[in-house]
């Protein structure tokens, strides 16, 4: 094994050990938000900790993707009341760049194509910009790290030199989002319908890549999805039903399986009824850390 590769392996393992010792928490507290005067989030309460996988399920137009965008600071949305905390600090006044540097990550449903910027250059720039100078990597060291992570995701080395998402298939784009997560090592990742448009093989690869990050670095995940199929590969700790801008019901994998059997209709009514008789915000007990598995 080349000497440079040995150094990268040691540095990667050292960083993984450090990450597994850290605990990070993102809290959404009674969050109300609007866009162009229309209410879109209507009292969302949610807590995600390191190593937890939360699935957010709901019908089209319920506000699931809006929640992810608001958490990352999309300027089109207005926070009417409530708060978003990361490790106890309010991030409402933080820019999207500050939120990203702190360790929040959004995997897009429709990744943007960036002609003229290679995957390798984009990721190396993002990696070094998010780290202090003493932890930044040279081109040679970074390329060795990138090669490792691409191999894990079954991505050919030549993809590193292609322009970011330019001409990529749907599966390649989604694997590229997981590659970004693997390289940038965020603390909490919001995955906005990452499973949409994937065939079975691509779905397994994406889910496996995410599960490895949860296991290796205790990544906290909010997985936004319409369908339970990805949850058969990326096992959630919590499943939340999101309807009309708020969480109306929470549970485990059994809730996702119920959605798969009966659809959202009956659950929407059950959840709405439960919310109307319950004044307290929706909170879910946090179990001990569980290693995600496929």
Describe this structure in words.
It is globular and about 55 Å long. The chain contains nine helices and twelve strands. The protein has helices at residues 3-20, 64-71, 96-102, 119-129, 139-152, 170-184, 200-217, 253-262, 265-276, and strands at residues 25-35, 38-49, 53-57, 78-86, 89-90, 104-107, 114-118, 163-164, 188-192, 220-225, 238-243, 246-251. It has one domain: P-loop containing nucleotide triphosphate hydrolases (Rossmann fold, 3-Layer(aba) Sandwich). The strands form three sheets. It has a six-stranded mixed beta sheet, with helices on both faces. A four-stranded antiparallel beta sheet has the order 2-1-4-5, with helices on one face. It has a two-stranded antiparallel ribbon with strand order 7-8.
